[in-house]
Design a protein that fits this description.
The chain is mainly α. Among the domains are: 84 residues, Nucleotidyltransferase, domain 5; 104 residues. It is built from twelve helices and eight strands. The strands form four sheets. The protein has a two-stranded antiparallel ribbon with strand order 1-2. It has a two-stranded parallel ribbon with strand order 3-4. Strand 1 and strand 2 form a beta hairpin. The radius of gyration is 43 Å and the shape is elongated. The relative contact order is 0.06.
Length: 361
Amino acid sequence: AGPQVGNALGSLEPLRWMLRSPFDRNVPVNLELQELLLDYSFQHLGVSSQGCVDHPIVLTEAVCNPLYSRQMMSELLFECYGIPKVAYGIDSLFSFYHNKPKNLISSGLIISSGYQCTHILPILEGSLCFPFHNFQNYFSEELQKWQCPDYYENNVHKMQLPFSSKLLGSTLSSEEKQERRQQQLRRLQELNARRREEKLQLDQERLDRLLYVQELLEDGQMDQFHKALVELNMDSPEELQSYIQKLSSAVEQAKQKILHAEVTLEVDVVDSKPETPDLEQLEPSLEDVESIHDFEPLFSEETPEAEKPVTTVQPVFNLAAYHQLFVGTERIRAPEIIFQPSLIGEEQAGIAETLQYILDR
């Protein structure tokens, strides 16, 4: 029977599972089905021209319709139907401008409800021009204004970024700081010990390999011995013996370092209390200090006022000010890129130069 469209469908319920649509959320994606819909529409509209549709077409589309979808639709209309021209628009905007009173300003809020999605479109005085957008006639002169500190402070946009108001250093006590330093030191010692063990393991494996090759020489297996020397990139048994001696010494030294590090770590953990000086050893030093005071009156027991620690008032910093994003000249530099692509290093003409080139031709 062929495809059935619109009112040609009889009972809908038995055919619901077979229904196909060329649209996905109001965007045409299946052009084969779209062509069937256009054939059905032109036939029922009574278009009688032969081989083409000799009528201008006004076609509505979804808001922010992808350029690729519009391109494929234009290709279908021009190549398959031979239409003279086509215009695209949004049906809700057409309805707004047609139904609004002529003596009112073109401002309003459009709510366009559909079967699959709903669009809310604000219209402000009928256009997107000033005062809702900034337009700069002289780009270089506008940049010069931003060099003035007062102009910068009055026009810069500050955006507050999220941050944590807690300072780690100020919330920790001296004991907690000391404990953290000890943990970091212990972690560093463990990391160094692990690296030494890994290096020792690699050196031990290489030493075992060299000793195995030396055993081949002692057993008289010369063919396998010379083959192993070639694999090790060595020329003679003397060179092999020299490598064995050096590697054995390095392995022994690494073992001693690991053992010494373990002993040092145990001592640091067990004996963590500071040593208290012997009182008998302090008495001679105190007598020397008293004798110095007798000969030099400047060495007094009282601390002068100049040497006393001065309690300074710590300034209060506004942490929020250090987590802000300032948008100043970027507001006029970013739109200027389409007119001067050289601002971002693109070697191509801007939109004004391109339009001038097209008009000249």
